Amino acid sequence: MNTHLHAALDLAARGVPVLPLHKGKVPFANCPACLYTSCGGRPNMKTPGPCTCPRPCHAWAAATTDTDVITGPAWSTAWKQAAAVAYHPGGVGLTVVDLDHANAVAWARQTLPATRTVATTRGEHWIYQGAMPSVNAVRDGVDIKSTMVYARWLGPGTGTMSALPDTVRALIVKKPSPVRPVTAAVPTGGGECRHRTPAYLERGIAMAEQRITEAASGVHATVYRTFLAVLSAHGRCGCLTDAHAARLFAAAQTKGESPRHCTDAWTNARTALGM
Questions:
Q1: With left for phi above 0 and alpha for psi between -120 and 50, is residue 259 left, alpha or beta?
Q2: 274 φψ region: left (φ > 0), alpha (ψ -120 to 50), beta (else)
Q3: Radius of gyration (Cα) for the chain, nearest Å?
Q4: Comparing C-alpha atoms, which of 198, 229, 199, 197 is closest to residue 211?
Q5: Backbone angles phi, psi at 76, to 5 degrees
Q6: What percent of the chain has pLDDT over 70?
Q7: Which stretches within 84-218 are classed as H helix?
Q8: I need a surface site. Which of 70, 180, 194, 219 has the fewest CB within 10 A?
Q9: Is the entire prediction scored with pTM above 0.85?
Q10: In this predicted model, what pLDDT tens digit does every residue of 74-129 receive, in sequence order?
Q11: Burial code of 101-122, b = ≥16 C-beta within 10 A, e = fewer?
Q12: What mean pLDDT comes out for the span 63-77?
């Protein structure tokens, strides 16, 4: 059996969505109406969402654990020509911090919690348990690969995988700032705003993430109601930051919500609360 196909089937059996990569780390164009660089959106567009062309589609949207697709006719030629196997990290609840050169690796060793690492051609992949939005070039030589992107499979790596830390989540926030309220809440009795208590806020965000993650149906409605509850409890006191919102967006995207739907739900919740 083809080496790449064998690796893909092994990953799929462990629940990891996979796809073949052409030389140059480029996905195969499974549909002639779509661009290589499209990401599951309308033909020749980069808008996330269901593609109207026949499945399997392209790029991260093609990643699958379905062995009938992996070994089927749509990919039979692709595996013969494949130069590598890719997987969708966010699809299995992972985040890859892609360190592209030695300086980036040195920065990670000084800054980030230790986790499972995989050697790459020029640097390392640091893999954490937990999904988040994907952003390239968060700093020199550092990309975040999680939801709606693919990463090359370069082996299982070494070390114990750690939970996704806030230091990684914070990398995608260009300018952390409080969610803008209409008026700041003023604590009664001259005391400190209870929402600023770290444990109180952390518990609220963690419960919101869990509520979204455990949604078995009606995910879109659950996301909106959860955003509404979080903003109602924490949105007017100035303690809710972009990093907290990013955590909620990541939980929603792991359940299949697009960034646009997350933004719309957040905006609609703020509007409903008069914020």
A1: alpha
A2: left
A3: 20
A4: 229
A5: -60, -45
A6: 79
A7: 102-111, 166-169, 198-213
A8: 180
A9: no
A10: 888 889 999 999 999 998 999 999 999 999 999 999 999 999 999 999 999 999 99
A11: eeebbebbeeebeebbbbebee
A12: 89
Question: What does the DSSP 8-state code read for residue 185?
Answer: -
Please tell me the least confidently modeled range out of 28-32, 79-83, 242-246, 258-262: 28-32
Angle formed by the axes of helices 198-213 and 219-234, nearest 10°: 170
> How far is 264 from 275, CA to CA, in rounded Å?
14
Question: How does strand 84-87 pair with strand 18-22?
Answer: antiparallel
Read off the amino acid at residue 191.
G
103 φ/ψ angles, rounded to the nearest 5 degrees: -65, -35
Question: What does the chain come to in residues?
Answer: 275
233: left (phi over 0), alpha (psi -120 to 50) or beta: alpha
d(CA 234, CA 166): 19
- Residue 117: both structure tokens together: 């690492």
Alpha-carbon separation of residue 5 from 36, 83, 264 (angstroms): 21, 11, 39
Gap between the Cα atoms of 22 and 179, Å rounded: 43
Structure tokens at 125: 């992949």
Q: Which of 272, 185, 166, 189 is nearest to 234 (CA)?
A: 185
Phi then psi dihedrals of residue 26, to 5 deg: -105, 135
Instruction: Classify each residue of 171-209 as buried b or exposed e, where b means 16 or more C-beta atoms within 10 Å of its C-beta.
Output: bbbeeeeebebeeeeeeeeeeebebeeeeebeebbeebb
- Nearest CA to 256 out of 7, 76, 50, 75 is that of 50
